[in-house]
Amino acid sequence: MVGKIKVLLSKLGLDVHNRGLITVARQLRNAGMEVIYIGNALPKEIISAAIQEYVDVVGVSSLGGAHITLGTPLIEQAKREGVKDKVVFLMGGVFPPEDNVILKEIGFDEVFTPGATRDEIVSSIKKLVSSKKRS
Amino acid sequence: MKKTTKDILHEKLSSRKRMPLYNPEALQTLRQRFEHWMNSTVREKDREHWMKTPRTVLGSDIPREMLYTPLSNPDLDYQEDLGNSGQEPFARGIHANMYRGREFTMRQLTGFGSPEDTNERIKFMLDHGATGLNVLFDIPTIQMYDSDDPLSAGQVGMSGVCVDSIEDMALIFKDIPLDKVTVSIVTHYPSNTAILFPMFLVLAEERGIPWDKLQGSVQNDITLEELIRSGPEYMPPRDCFRIQCDNIEFIRRNVPQWNFITLNGYNLREFGTSGVTEIAVAVANGIETMEEMVRRGHNADSIANRLAFFWSPASDFFEEVARIRGVRRLWYKIMKYRFNAKDPRAMWMRCHVQTSGVSLIQQEPLNNIIRSAYHALAAIFGGVQSLHVDSFDEAYSVPTEEAALLSLRTQQIIQEEIGVTDVVDPLGGSFYVEALTNDIEQRILDEVDEIERAGGYVAAIENGELHKKIATYFSNQQREIEDGEIKVVAYNIYKSDIEPPPINVFRYPEGVEERQKARIGKLRLDRDNGKVSRALTGLKEACGKRKNIFPYTIECARARCTEGELFKVFKEVFGLWKPPALW
């Protein structure tokens, strides 16, 4: 059993599309999680906010094509700061199917594309958080 | 309190003499027979559920009768409510001959990678029969950061084409005769319109093309900048609205054939709102813009005859047809009775539409071709002027060349093969469509009234009321789709275990960011930096002194200033605004 899960959400870079992430923020809050939504930010700012806030989960959203070019430095920064293994990293957005695989290879714990439901997202977060806590 | 548009229309229209089409005696008989039919022929279950509300993606939840008859609209006055096409109140179309006289413009959105990549795709579309251009910028350009800004890293040339200076604009339009094609330049925001459109104008000037020969449009709409997008930095709404109006003023005087604002419903709808709210917000902005331009001393006709609108036809087919007809009639009334327009053109609701992108899904992507074709057909039945059809692969990325061509072909099939453009307003007179048109027009006016009573459009942005309304709508929609209340084939009903064949998905060209950074670096060395700094100082003064800023941004384009340099000036003078939290 895990306590109240703390999630940091951010739009990656300058991406203008925030409907999906706002919807997810509301869904996670309704599911009893503590949500910190920091708006648009770059990888370094996201990781430093994650460390400051002691979050369990970092969820980033990219619908503008920059999921790999900004997703990669995000995970690298997390590794440099030593939080990659403590925090769950999620990516949501619009990307070609084969990029889901690439994103997981980069180090994202889970990837959500349009069509992902709140139940899938919530249960996946719970599972991932408890497995990271055990490891 | 100041009279609202609804008050004014009520005052001026309720006293007009009406000439109902239906004979009262015939209606009386009809009513009796209808009641008899209802009790004898209609099943009890259907009587109980006579009104049904279609649940659709981005729908307005307007209840519908099972069958529409003259009784649904007994007071119909043909001349007053519909008129012939090209005639007041323009419900049936702005031109008498509509598509017989002028085909809808096939204007597919284009933009990705470097300016050279986009130039190549534009030529490909023109070679295959596109009749207008529609250029989309990458996210750093939309957000007004240069390609070498640290904030742009990893995003240059993505979901649009990168533009830092006039040099890039020149490459996008290489070999394209600017005085021969109409160009929609999708400068989403007022602030980036003030930066990017001058680059286009100075390009024309340097090619020896006078500005009065240029035809096309910019978006220049505060809605997208302040209400919809996400961004690290926002300018205050009042300053943004001032820039919107500065742009209008300059373009009206100097580029006479150019549509200086595209009142944008599309992006708001796609962000997540009903078809009614989409239109109400754009109309509210239109009204506030007209008021400001009149306050600045412009003649209402001279401004209104260049206003254009941009809509998103989504899934509820008849709602889409009815609302385009309904807003055309409403806009006519507003212009005629509120702004006392005299020129018929100033009463026209002219529009471009793009089929709904958010309605397209990743599961079985080929189904999206069908969805977009229906959206497009509804728009044509509504009588729109210009059309973009979304591509089936857009739930994954920007369209491939193959998918973009298929979208153009969809338009060409509607235009050439199925005969729907031969008769004007083919659904006009349908008991159903006319009743729905009336209903939607009323609902739009009611929502405009709400905004006006709350202090007007800019105030409704500042106080966060509209932001909240929209976020509530899209959160509810998401829940209803996930719960299956709103049906989406192959997503929440008729799901299939069979893996559909893979589709080709667009990949961005490599190396765009490096090349663009090198180009902007070279520009900063080669240009006359004294001239650049004089131009930027001039702009800063104009912003502070409330002079029209546009002549100064033109000077900046001439001096080869970059977009980011101008945005920095705006931020210094206007400061930043914190939009309301949406969640």
CATH H-level homologous superfamily name of chain A: Cobalamin-binding domain
Give the helices and strands of chain A as they follow along the chain: EHEHEHEHEH
Report the sheet-strand fraction of chain A: 15-25%
Q: Which topology of chain A does CATH recognise?
A: Rossmann fold
Quaternary status = heterodimer
CATH architectural designation of chain A: 3-Layer(aba) Sandwich
Briefly characterize the structure.
By secondary structure, chain A is α/β, with parallel strands linked by helices. Chain A contains 5 helices and 5 strands, in the order E-H-E-H-E-H-E-H-E-H. Helices cover 47% and strands 22% of the residues of chain A.
Set out the fold topology.
The complex is a heterodimer of chains A (135) and B (583).
Chain A: E1 6-12, H1 19-30, E2 34-41, H2 43-52, E3 57-62, H3 67-80, E4 88-93, H4 97-106, E5 110-112, H5 118-134
Parallel strand pairs in A: 1-2, 1-3, 3-4, 4-5
Chain B: H1 5-13, H2 24-40, H3 44-48, H4 78-82, H5 98-101, E1 105-106, E2 109-110, H6 115-127, E3 133-136, H7 139-142, H8 166-172, E4 183-186, H9 190-206, E5 216-218, H10 222-228, H11 237-254, E6 258-259, E7 261-264, H12 266-272, H13 275-295, H14 300-304, E8 307-311, H15 317-338, E9 351-354, H16 367-382, E10 386-388, H17 401-416, H18 431-453, H19 457-462, H20 465-482, H21 512-526, H22 529-544, H23 550-558, H24 563-574
Parallel strand pairs in B: 1-10, 2-3, 3-4, 4-5, 5-6, 7-8, 8-9, 9-10
